Each structure stands twice: as structure tokens, then as C-alpha cells.
Amino acid sequence: MIDIDHEYGELSKTVQGMGEYVIFAKSAGTILASKGIASGILKPVKNVFCGFPLGMARSNNYPIENWLQKIMVQTVFIHNTHDVVLSFHDLGLFLEPLKFDYKTIETPGETHDYMDFDLIKDLLFG
Fold first, then answer.
1. What is the spatial distance between Cα 87 and Cα 80, in angstroms, rounded to a whole number?
2. What is the pTM for the complete model shown?
3. Residue 119's closest CA among 30, 111, 84, 109?
4. What DSSP string runs through 83-114?
């Protein structure tokens, strides 16, 4: 399990002085990135989130809806159709009422693994 407070502190040190960057995060990392962006510590030019763990965010009482709606750059959610953590369909239902710039991309799969980097690259860059 991720210690979000510890990782958040480490992340804030890491990004100091960085130029433009894109955040590519998976699973618990998407929660950490969302918190960092919402608080102003992270300032990416774009986000790519794979395998969004809504259940983890809710079970830890993270205000994930608020964090996401504070993101001011496009966020691309790449998500497997039948991800065991959260299906692509349920991700869409969760995101639909939220007000921020996002795009969803459905990928085939029944796992929480996102290891087909060639597919992800093709989806993002054609």
C-alpha cells in the first residue's frame, strides 16, 4: 500500500526546478499525482493515467473528485475494458459528472496490468 503522505513529500522535492513535463502514472500513482496537482506542487503540461484505482481512493477517504477537478491540463485515462480494480465502464460513470479536461481510451484486457507499452505509445502518439 502506498504511504501517500511520505510519497507526496518526496515528490515535492523531486519536481523542484523541473521544466515542462508530462505525468505518466499508474494505479496508486494516479492518486498521488492528482493530490500533487490539486495542491499546486505538480505542474505538468499533460497527464496520462493508467488503471485508475477509484476504490483505493474512496476507501482511504481521499477527496479524489475535488483533486481531479482542480487539474487544469488534459488528463488521458488509459483503462482496460475489464480491469479487475475498476472496469472501463465504471470509470466512465465516475468521470462523467466531473468538470475537468479529460479523455478516456479503452484498451483490451481483464487485468490491472498496463505493460503493452507499444500499444500505449501508439494510442498516445499514433
1. 7
2. 0.91
3. 109
4. -SSS-HHHHHHHHTT--S-EEEEEE--SSS--
pLDDT digits (tens, 9 = 90+) for 8-54: 778 778 888 888 999 999 999 999 999 999 999 999 999 999 999 99
11, 25 in Cβ contact below 8 A?
no
Cα separation, 41 vs 118, in Å, equals: 30
What's the CA gap between 32 and 47, in Å, rounded?
12
Q: What is the CATH number of the domain that holds 45?
A: 3.40.50.1820
Number of domains in the chain: 1
Residue 96's domain spans which residues?
Answer: 4-125
